[in-house]
Automatic annotation (TrEMBL):
UniProt remark on cofactor binding: Binds 1 [4Fe-4S] cluster.
EC number(s) from the headed UniProt entry: 3.2.2.31
Function noted in UniProt: Adenine glycosylase active on G-A mispairs. MutY also corrects error-prone DNA synthesis past GO lesions which are due to the oxidatively damaged form of guanine: 7,8-dihydro-8-oxoguanine (8-oxo-dGTP).
Residues in HhH-GPD domain copies: 42-193
One GO BP annotation of this record: mismatch repair
Protein name (record): Adenine DNA glycosylase
Domain of life: Bacteria
Keyword tRNA-binding set for record: no
Gene name tied to this protein: mutY
Cofactor list: [4Fe-4S] cluster
Keywords, alphabetical: 4Fe-4S, DNA damage, DNA repair, Glycosidase, Hydrolase, Iron, Iron-sulfur, Metal-binding
Length: 361
């Protein structure tokens, strides 16, 4: 598109932001790089409505990056519980501690230094650099890809190498370098409330007269993506083994989902099984070798949708007989203290339902 078309886009977008945009968020207009960073990490893969209360709770608990750096891992994960994508939380802690040690508690003020922090990519670095320091770096998130693809009629898949390069160049050319922060906020808000994925506000859009997608009836076809998401299904059977009002839990390790969160004894099966099939399985016998118990109940199925996985979970409550055995990797904790541990959303949902029903297990 010609330079005049790009100028029309930028000028009208900024005008819309000044005169029409009423979208409010607690971090909007924030200049503190720590608070901007915290909001951006929370909002990765998370809707604003869901992330908002988490942001406020984190700011209250850890008002500065130094407070976060000094926090105990389990406390932070407990506060993060329910947001999912827990790698964000691990990386956030690592970055906070690097800022505390390498930068003496002062958030770095250059794009490259911000980008080098754990868990920060090009988008987040650009957001912090422009919002906090006014540095001329354009943001590129899902909203921005969609706005640019539709307005400029970009056919290159946004998830391809060529597409990322093309969109990055285009975003940089459109950026008002003297108003980098307001421009970046404007285009993200515009994608969220006007150029929405579904039912965009095209008839009232201030950019519609020159929007190629709108004027060629291709709004629902852009942006283009090449990759088809493959969803893996997993079946978890959590065993709640009770001895004297204590249950076994462990902290998940390795590179699987929910690392550093806690869980009950877990048996994973290739597919759904009956209670009899579960008890007869080699995995069950290997997990509970020689344990004597009474079956108290098997829960309904719980479902949790992750980006690349669907988790189906059921909870089997067992009352142990005799002396509590030592189970490798697990610890016995009082049932009354389970709220002190961070669990995946699936387990939290189960525990909340049990509590609501005035019973626990």
């Amino acid at each position: 598109m010609k330079r005049a078309g790009k100028a029309f886009f930028t000028d009208n977008l900024l005008t819309w932001n000044r005169e029409i945009n009423t979208r409010t968020m607690p971090w909007k207009g924030e200049k503190d790089p720590y608070r901007i960073w915290l909001s951006e990490i929370i909002l990765q893969q998370t809707r604003v409505e869901q992330g908002w209360p988490y942001y406020e709770r984190f700011i209250q608990a850890y008002p500065t990056v130094a407070h976060l750096a000094q926090a105990h891992d389990d406390e932070v994960f407990r506060l993060w519980q329910g947001l999912g994508y827990y790698a964000r939380c691990r990386n956030m802690l690592a970055a906070a501690r690097e800022i505390a040690t390498r930068y003496h508690g002062v958030f770095p003020n250059t794009y490259d230094a911000i980008l080098a922090l754990k868990g920060i990519g090009a988008y987040t670095a650009a957001a912090i650099a422009s919002f906090a320091y006014g540095l001329p770096h354009a943001v590129l998130d899902g909203n921005v890809y969609r706005v640019l693809a539709r307005y400029f009629g970009v056919q290159t898949p946004s998830d391809s190498t060529a597409g990322k390069k093309e969109f990055t160049q285009l975003a940089g050319e459109l950026l008002d370098k003297k108003q980098a922060g307001p421009y970046n906020q404007a285009i993200m808000d515009f994608g969220a409330v006007v150029c929405k994925p579904q039912a965009p506000e095209c008839p009232t859009c201030p950019l519609s007269t020159q929007c190629l997608a709108y004027n060629t009836d291709r709004v629902d076809q852009l942006p283009v993506k090449t990759k088809k998401l493959v969803i893996r299904q997993r079946h978890f059977y959590y065993i709640i083994l009770i001895y004297n009002n204590q249950v076994y839990i462990r902290k998940r390790a390795g590179k699987d989902i929910w690392q550093n969160l806690h869980e009950f004894i877990l048996v994973e099966t290739p597919g759904p099984v009956t209670l009899a099939e579960l008890q007869a399985s080699e995995a069950f016998r290997h997990t509970l070798p020689g344990v004597q118990f009474e079956v108290e109940g098997l829960s309904e199925q719980y479902k949790q949708q992750l980006t690349h996985q669907t988790i189906f979970a059921r909870f089997l409550t067992l009352k142990g007989k005799g002396r509590a055995p030592k189970l490798e990797g697990y610890q016995l904790v009082p049932r009354s203290l389970l709220n002190d541990y961070a669990f995946p959303k699936t387990i939290v949902s189960y525990l909340e339902q049990q509590t609501t029903g005035l019973t626990l297990f």
